Every structure is written in C-alpha cells, then in structure tokens.
Amino acid sequence: MLTRLQELSLIARCIAADDRQAFGLLVEAYSDPLRRFVLSLTKGDVALADDLAQDTFLKAYLSIRTLNGITRFRTWLFRIAYNEFITHTRRSRPAASLDEAAQAADDDPETGATIPDSTLAEAIMRLPDTQRAIVQLFYFEEFPISRISTITGLPQGTVKSYLSRARARLALLLEKYRY
User: Among residues 26, 55, 134, 143, which one has the fewest Cβ atoms lying within 10 Å of its Cβ?
Assistant: First the structure.
C-alpha cells in the first residue's frame, strides 16, 4: 500500500502531465485489494469481478481530476467499485431490491448439514449484498467505519447497524452448521 504522500505525488503526476505510468503505479498498488473486494461482492464470479474492476479503473482514470485532496485514493477507488457493483446489480435484477433477493435465499437454510472448511467464506456469501460489502470492507480490507460510510454512501450509524446485523446473521448461520 502506498503512503499518503506517494499517493498524492502519483495523483498530481496523473493530473498535471496525464502521466499514464503514474496511474499504472496506482493500479498496481490497489489492484489486488480491489479485485478481492469486487470478487466478494460478486459471490466468486471471476469474470464479472474482472469486468467490474476494469470498469472501476477506467472510470477512475477518466475522472481522476475530480478527486479532492481530502479523500484517499483507495477509498475513492473502492467507492467507484461499489457503485459499479450496485449499478450492475440494479440492471440485472430490476424487479427486486438489492438485499431482498439475498434475504429470500437465506430464509430456509438447510438444517443439520455440514459445510466444508470454508464455512465462514460460504456464510459471508449468504449475506445480503450490502452487509457482505460492509463485512468485506471492515474485516478484510480493514477500512474504518468512517471510510466504509464514504465508500457505501451510508451514514456511519447505518454502517454500524449493518455490521451488527451481519455479525448476528453470521453467528446464526454458523451455529446451524455446528458439527
């Protein structure tokens, strides 16, 4: 990960001289965490995750001049990725809200079944989209609540509420699959 000064230097080079090499360094620094985040959002759909990540970097490149100095590049980039995912989800499921379909899928989990070693990962995949995104950002990408609020566009209290609900839901899902 880049320091704040390194980020600002690369962003300045991108803006002032349209330095594609500098943007390439930003992409290189944040590609893996962004792809991991988008892959989680897409529930493991590698092709869709790659498309969304590519769209994210393209939008970031085209609009880097709009980045204000207050927001970290990484936070801004994750916000673009989250918005790309939401846009894709709305286009592919126009009749249902983002979380309703995932909620309905979890209403009747199998009882007494055992899950392989990836129990936690599978349980996370069963969370509604917004909760899954917040869990991914908080626990795996280590963003603080304030940055998650910026990325998702949700108030901090709502982010905390979603995180709490996700923890409770994960506990419930994992309890049902105890050996």
Answer: 55
